[in-house]
Amino acid sequence: MPEIHYTDDELVQLLSQNDQKAFESIYNSYWERLYAMAYNRLGSKENAEGLVQDIFTELWDRRAKLTVHQSLAAFLFSALKYKIINHFASLAVRRRYVEEKKKLTSQFDNATEEWLSFDELNKFIVLEIDKLPEKCRLVFQLSQEGKSSKEIGQELNISSRTAEGHINQARKTLKSKLSGLNMVMAFLYIV
Q: Please, what's the largest Cα pairwise distance for the chain?
């Protein structure tokens, strides 16, 4: 039985009527050319095959509603062009996402390290404050709560000058203990 050859327009008409042979004929006629164009643009066999496969899958899925206003070749190559554009746009979005994620991860890592350093420093300072003489420690702790020398003096029944002396002594002691540590963080904590 002789093989019947259809035009592209006839194949599209048959395809819209669920003719699987028409689909196979379109696939066999255009797959290689579409793949060559996709591979030429993408440089990846897997990506080229995937995009071309997507075009034929969508062609089959939309066969009942398919309207081709130009030639079938122009329709398919135009569809491939947009697939390639979307592919590159998707890659750009992924790259930006990965870059932003790296930045955030880096910032998070640095923040964690800084927090751990600050936490260690805080523990060290608390231990050193606990080593201060009782009256000196109490005055210093009240000053850290935001109370003035005058308020501390009234609360502890000492002069404001004595309260200032205890605060200065506590700061001096803590600064000398912290000399080997990060002075900026220590200074910020004490002041």
A: 119
